[in-house]
DNA sequence: TATACATCCTGTAGTTACTACAGGATCAAG
DNA sequence: CTTGATCCTGTAGTAACTACAGGATGTATA
């Protein structure tokens, strides 16, 4: 059993974030030492690492929580997990499409900018009625 | 001079958002009628529309404010405007690269999922030490 | 004129997922 | 016994809105 600082180091999840996850019920409340300090087992650290991986993959915290719960079931529910991943993948694709659109629009906007004319064509375009 | 609802309709910026922009000093305080209601001119509406366009292009509110100010200068500063746009374009590109990385990781993660085995390979990968 | 409904006002709280304190207690090492 | 690290609780801040609550006013219809 280790203290929160060590659990943070081993999992890559910040101390404040660990306490935040506890408050939010994302992870169970850990044991406490006689001095009221939190004590974490290797299972607890595993959960934190799991959550870190999910977050790094862009899953929302609720999604990460669902995946963690699925992962801890007796026969981990692959179908449900896959569904969560599919939804997330779709949202990643959608964001990417949106960014592509944005980049094209930005390119268009600045195309004739700094052409030497007195008026900035970019700002003009933004002002257009 | 029109009321806030009409200004919202003409600019595409929500009523609450207009008041928010005013509180934040993004747009100047509008005139008030005798009954204390806000009154907007076509110039005010133009500002709101300008901000809406910037936000739709993904500029942050501070960036949008800077662009609006540049746009209202006597000789609109094209160089500065272009610099803001370049910074934004770079951040758009960076986000896109990040999303590409995410998508690849998600594909890898779910590749052998639902392969009929008892254990979900995706959840297994997320658990890996 | 009465009434209903739309629109406006101010001010506050909620959203996401943390992060950063403040103010204090406890621990480990020299 | 002091110093510095670590821990505790609780609160507030971040970005850019959005959603009320509670009340005042305006407008159109019967």
Task: Kindly summarize this structure in a few lines.
2 copies of one chain form a homodimer. Chain A is built from 6 helices and 2 strands.
Task: Please describe what this structure looks like.
- Two copies of one chain form a homodimer.
- Chain A is mainly alpha-helical and 129 residues long.
- The first copy, chain A, has six helices and two strands; from the N terminus they run H-H-E-E-H-H-H-H.
- Chain A has helices at residues 4-11, 15-23, 42-56, 61-72, 78-110, 121-127, and strands spanning 31-32, 38-39.
- In chain A, strands 1-2 form a two-stranded antiparallel ribbon.
- The first copy, chain A, is elongated and about 75 Å long.
- The interface between A and B is large, with 44 and 44 residues.
- The first copy, chain A, binds a DNA duplex (30 and 30 nucleotides) through residues 3-5, 14-17, 19-20, 24, 35-38, 55, 60-61.
């Amino acid at each position: 059993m280790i203290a929160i600082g060590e659990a943070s180091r081993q999992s890559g999840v910040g101390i404040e974030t660990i306490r935040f996850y506890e408050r939010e019920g994302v992870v169970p409340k850990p044991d406490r030492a006689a001095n009221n300090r939190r004590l974490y087992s290797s299972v607890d650290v595993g959960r934190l690492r799991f959550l870190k991986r999910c977050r790094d993959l862009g899953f929302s915290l609720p999604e990460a929580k669902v995946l963690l719960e699925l992962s801890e079931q007796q026969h981990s529910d692959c179908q449900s997990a896959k569904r969560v991943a599919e939804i997330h993948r779709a949202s990643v694709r959608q964001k990417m499409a949106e960014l592509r659109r944005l980049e094209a629009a930005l390119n268009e906007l600045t195309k004739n900018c700094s052409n030497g004319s007195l008026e900035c064509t970019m700002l003009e375009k933004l002002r257009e009625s």
